[in-house]
Specification:
With 259 residues, this protein is an alpha/beta fold. Helix content is 34%, strand content 20%. The protein has two domains: 174 residues, Rossmann fold, CATH 3.40.50; 58 residues, no CATH class. Strands 1, 2, 3, 4, 5, 6, 7, 8 and 9 form a nine-stranded mixed sheet that branches. The protein is globular, with a radius of gyration of 18 Å. About 4% of the residues have low confidence.
Length: 259
């Protein structure tokens, strides 16, 4: 059975959901969603772990006044409130992956392992889009410039849910409705202030000691696929898989025992 907690961090009250007991696993959502991204996973994880998912500032049910803040320290506040000092496995998608990596670099003793799904990384090279992807990105940027939240949400669904080179509407039904609801909340949320976590991590990946499983999608942006491969190959405990294919270890490693 899930429980909802409100965790104070600065001027924010972070809405966190917890299921189960045992080894803590913290689920960090992307910039296109909220903790409901994990609604299909948190119950299964909670059968034999303490599964925790929370809404970041500007997302979901979290309440936050505008201030300078650190997303890593918000995560630390969740760990302090929920895990009794036990190191956690951090599972992060996209921007959630960036926060997980930053936390592993800043607080390595708090992180037992990482699962990074198409992660962002501070300091990574700027994307070099092939022409067909650049055209899609320009179209989405024009939608964002329109100031119409419904048009922006539809463009983000086309780009991030379907995939830049996949057919429009590839993902339909409940998943698309959930995506549009989550991104709609984020687009209409009041400003929360700047995240001060800006120290580059890309050049320090080889110092991350936590065992790490990196996942990419075969319909992800090409630069995200390349970045995911680089992370798995650079981190000492890195292991990689692509959705839609059989996982295969990099030549120098085996799957990390995370859970």
């Amino acid at each position: 059975m899930s429980k909802i907690r409100r965790i104070a961090s600065g001027r924010a009250l972070l809405a966190a959901e917890v299921v189960g007991e045992g080894q803590p696993v913290v689920l960090l959502h992307s910039n296109a969603g909220d903790r409901r991204e994990w609604q299909a996973a948190i119950g299964r994880l909670g059968m034999d772990h303490q599964a925790i998912a929370y809404d970041r500032r500007g997302f979901g049910e979290t309440q936050a006044e505008q201030e300078d803040y650190s997303a890593v320290e918000d995560l630390t506040a969740v760990l302090d409130a929920m895990t009794e000092g036990t190191p956690a496995v951090l599972v992060g998608c996209s921007m959630g992956g960036k926060i997980a990596l930053d936390a592993a670099l800043r607080h390595p003793a708090r992180v037992r392992g990482l699962v990074l799904i198409a992660p962002s990384v501070q300091g990574a090279p700027a994307p070099d889009y092939p022409p067909e992807v650049a055209e899609m990105v320009a179209w989405a940027q024009a939608a964002e410039g329109s100031g119409d939240p419904a048009r922006v949400a539809a463009a983000k669904a086309r780009l991030w849910l379907d995939g830049p080179l996949a057919p429009e509407g590839r993902v339909e039904g409940t998943a698309r409705r959930l995506f549009l609801d989550m991104i709609g909340i984020a687009l209409n949320a009041p400003a929360v202030g700047p995240n001060l976590d800006r120290t580059p991590a890309y050049g320090r990946l080889d110092t991350v000691t936590a065992p790490t499983f990196v996942i990419q999608g075969d319909l992800d942006f090409p630069h995200i696929q390349a970045r995911s491969r680089h992370i798995a190959e650079t981190m000492p405990g890195g292991y990689q898989a692509t959705s839609g294919t059989h996982p295969s270890a990099t030549p120098r490693t085996q799957p990390p025992p995370l859970l």
